[in-house]
Design a protein that fits this description.
0% strand; mainly alpha; 76% helix; rod-shaped; 67 residues
Length: 67
């Protein structure tokens, strides 16, 4: 009986460690998602400001001359 309790305690401890690791991973991923969303909003604002200024900048203008 005692060995079963010890085995269960070990399993619970390992599961707690795994849960902590997964929680850290999810937290880090959420921070990355938040950063990417902010960058996307910034790019969208820049694109909208470019269109409002009447600047008809095309991506083809950025192609190097050897193309």
């Amino acid at each position: 009986m005692e060995s079963r309790i010890t085995e269960l305690e070990i399993k619970v401890a390992l599961q707690d460690d795994l849960l902590d690791a997964l929680n850290l991973t999810v937290t880090r991923q959420q921070q990355q998602i938040d950063l990417l969303q902010e960058q996307l909003r910034h790019l969208y604002r820049m694109q909208q400001a470019g269109n409002q200024d009447g600047d008809s900048h095309s991506l083809r203008d950025d192609i190097p001359p050897h193309y």
